[in-house]
Specification:
Elements: H1 2-20, H2 26-39, H3 56-70, H4 82-90
Helix pairs in contact: 2-3
Length: 92
């Protein structure tokens, strides 16, 4: 009887692992979300479907980073560049 339960548990575990591995990883979802936010049309709001897998705090962070990138406040590596932000404010 215990042998059948163990086999059933292993089958369920294998099925769950197969189902979970079919989609993008969390890191891939973060990158896709960021790309979508940077490239979406100006004025478009709301959480894109590509960002749905992200936790709320992670989504907020990615959205802020995407906003900085859209404003041109990042360097060639995608890092925040304070000088670019200041140049932007001094131009006005």
């Amino acid at each position: 009887m215990n042998h059948r339960r163990a086999v059933a548990a292993l089958v369920l575990l294998a099925a769950a692992l197969t189902a979970c591995s079919s989609g993008p990883t969390y890191d891939e979802s973060v990158k896709l979300c960021q790309k979508t936010l940077v490239e979406r049309p100006e004025g478009e709001t709301g959480k894109p479907k590509e960002c749905e897998p992200l936790k709320d705090e992670d989504y907020k962070t990615v959205a802020a980073a995407a906003a900085m990138a859209r404003l041109g406040w990042t360097d060639e590596n995608g890092n925040f560049d304070k000088n670019k932000m200041l140049e932007d404010t001094l131009d006005d």
